Amino acid sequence: MECPICLEVQDGPQHQCREGHVYCASCDSNLRAPRRCPECRMALGPLNQAIRCRSHEERIAALPAACSHCGLATTRGEVAAHEQDCPQRPRACAAAEAGCAWSGLLADKAAHEATCPFAVCQRMMAPLVAEMRAENSQLRAENERLRSRVAALEAGEAGEEGGRRVRQRVGAAPHDAPPSNAAVQAMDVAAATAALRVHVSDSRVAAAACKRLEELCMEDQNEQVAADAGAIEAIVAALQAHPQEAEVQAEGCAALTNVCFVNDAAGRARKQRAVAAGAIEAVVAALQAHPQVAGLQQRGCAALTNVCSGDDAAGRARKQRAVAAGAIEAVLAALQAHPQVAGLQQRGCAALGNVCSGDDAAGPARIQRAADAGAIEAVVAALQAHPQVEGVQQHICAALVNVCSGTDAAGRARSQRAADAGAIEAVVAALQAHPQEAGVQQHGCAALGNVCYGDDAVGLARKQRAADAGAIEAVVAAMQALPEVEEVQEMGCWALRNVCFGTDASARARRQRAVTARAPEAATAALQAHPENAAVQEEGQQLRDLLV
């Protein structure tokens, strides 16, 4: 049932190629030219001639689902309608747009609004607002009348300058009505940015413009064009203007993700520009305000990942700013609320791993804060829940590497906590399930090396637990399968050295097991294949010295 592109079971229209491979319509609309099936690479026709797979849509709609508010068992096709009217669904105050942050059950809504200062003020202002809207309607009608006069007079004065003179003579206002969604969809980068800036108070236009910028900035050459046009500041302004509009928040986060994607010098400048505009706080606020909207949570985590990436001083400062804004807790809440959404688990773990990286003075505190908030257990749970999804496994292993780093007492305690949660067995399973995926093998080996570090009693027990789970054979297999990947060779040697370290009989047995698995030969091959890589040379030589 999963779409092969976004790795999610999406509601709504499903498309298929002529061979019957199915993918969700939203992913199909984002395919870059030339459009090809993601499974068989068959050429696809125009998007407006896409083949609907209604049988697949019906199967998805028939899948069991439960109301996220009251837990009622229903189907995916019916759950949305039920949740809309569910008595347990949280309701916002009628004055939410005025600034009230209250949320509660329908039964409590009337009592709250009776004393809410925002709601009381809104009721008092209602007659004035109605009067203002009536006057606004009259002004719009007058504006339309003037436009009709302009159209009639422009026929006699050709050209743009002639039209401008006509509008001045009749006193017509500029053509500033909010554009339709179709008009926004046809805009280029500059026009979409201008529309977003001018009509930022209109949530419909804001969502449409952010979506258009997201699509345009999928092309690398448009990212800097968008930034130069002021798109970053306009997107952040839209997020800040519509905190309760989930669609605006989701599309804004997606647009930020793409604009801040590349990590070259210009890309880092765009990330810093986003931070200066308040992007980190806006994205974290979006995650906090809409915890049940999985798509928004996934896009928010992706935005945090891209904006906070970078290992220079500015990058580390961005990570620290994200932590101060509550990003760690918000991302963890997303992981815990949507454990079965593979794409969200992947993006969330990537965001966690990113925020918890860095060798600055505040780095250990960020890592410990994540652990204290439950990051280790959440990450291991994601690893166990999605064993066949390569992207999830890679990013989760990378997150484990960072969260379990550190050789002090706190670092060893985190490693033990990861082992207690089942991290060792889950990482070994990932290595075994994805033998040809370099990212999984690299980060999986690094995670094993970190979790198995330590020569105290519990550290030695972790090493033995890894060996019992098949870690030695899995790591050697990774080194043999990917001899050209320097990072796999380095991390493989590091993991084997930690697992095989020790002076007792169990450690000697582990070393013999590594010899039987041909670990010395793998280390020698790594040394010979990468003579210029100092890290591979150091780790490979130390492993060979330990085993031979």
Automatic annotation (TrEMBL):
Q: Which residues form a coiled coil?
A: 129-156
Annotated ranges, domain RING-type: 3-41
Does the record carry GTP-binding as a key word?
no
Q: Name one GO molecular function term.
A: zinc ion binding
Q: Which domain of life is it from?
A: Eukaryota
What are the alphabetically sorted keywords of the record?
Answer: Coiled coil, Metal-binding, Repeat, Zinc, Zinc-finger
Name it: RING-type domain-containing protein
Q: What is the lineage of its organism?
A: Eukaryota, Haptista, Haptophyta, Prymnesiophyceae, Isochrysidales
